[in-house]
């Protein structure tokens, strides 16, 4: 039998006072001695109680055993309920996905076709733009050639204008020179006429030639003077 020990703080008088009421609760054992009665009561009552060896981790170890057992049963019931709800939600999700899959696949096919048409349109636009760019480049090259030719013609015309300007300057210089020489000759002729040499020669020719010669000479002189004036 297991050993039984009382607390050390209890005195003999207290022990006698506590167990004096024992025959009232257990009348069949009143004829036995008190220690034997206590051993029999412990063996048939307390020794057969089975306490749990370990408590759940979510419960504090200070709870009574009956509370631990009830809490474990409640947790198991809640866990079973949550598992059933999870399975139900999974089935609903699978059903919804199965129902929505054809529509989504059809939408994806339509979207892919739209993207393919857009891609073909963009490719054709790109090819057309490339052709336009090539044409513009050729046109630009032709215009560039025309511009170079125009620049060359402009340089040639500038050179020709420069040559003509030089010739005009030379002509003006010669004109000024000839004008100065003409004025000098006019001044010489004017001085010659003023000094009476012309009159002397005319008198000499009158005396020497006949009147016909004088008339011819005068006419020739008049024609020469008129030509110089023109």
Automatic annotation (TrEMBL):
Entry keyword Hydrolase: no
**Coiled coil: which residue ranges?**
72-167
UniProt keywords, alphabetically:
Coiled coil, Membrane, Transmembrane, Transmembrane helix
UniProt domain KELK-motif containing: residue ranges? 111-189
Q: Where are the transmembrane segments?
A: 20-44, 189-207
- Which InterPro entries does this UniProt record tie to the protein? KELK (IPR031597)
Instruction: Please identify the protein, giving its name as recorded.
Output: KELK-motif containing domain-containing protein
Keyword Transmembrane helix: yes or no?
yes
Any matching Pfam family: KELK
- Taxonomic lineage from the root: Eukaryota, Metazoa, Porifera, Demospongiae, Heteroscleromorpha
Q: Please, which domain of life does this record's source organism belong to?
A: Eukaryota
């Amino acid at each position: 039998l297991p050993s039984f020990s009382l607390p050390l703080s209890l005195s003999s008088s207290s022990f006698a006072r506590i167990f004096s009421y024992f025959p009232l609760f257990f009348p069949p054992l009143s004829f036995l001695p008190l220690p034997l009665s206590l051993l029999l009561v412990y063996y048939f009552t307390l020794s057969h109680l089975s306490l749990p060896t370990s408590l759940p981790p979510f419960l504090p170890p200070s709870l009574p055993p009956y509370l631990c057992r009830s809490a474990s049963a409640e947790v198991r019931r809640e866990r079973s309920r949550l598992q059933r709800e999870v399975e139900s939600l999974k089935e609903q999700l699978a059903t919804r996905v199965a129902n929505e899959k054809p529509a989504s696949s059809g939408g994806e096919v339509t979207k892919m076709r739209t993207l393919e048409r857009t891609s073909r349109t963009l490719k054709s636009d790109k090819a057309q733009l490339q052709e336009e760019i090539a044409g513009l480049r050729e046109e630009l090259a032709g215009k560039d050639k025309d511009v170079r030719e125009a620049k060359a013609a402009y340089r040639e015309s500038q050179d020709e204008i420069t040559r003509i300007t030089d010739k005009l300057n030379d002509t003006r210089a010669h004109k000024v020179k000839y004008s100065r020489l003409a004025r000098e000759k006019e001044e010489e002729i004017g001085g010659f006429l003023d000094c009476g040499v012309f009159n002397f020669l005319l008198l000499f020719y009158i005396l020497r030639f006949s009147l016909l010669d004088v008339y011819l000479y005068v006419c020739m002189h008049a024609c020469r003077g008129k030509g110089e004036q023109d």
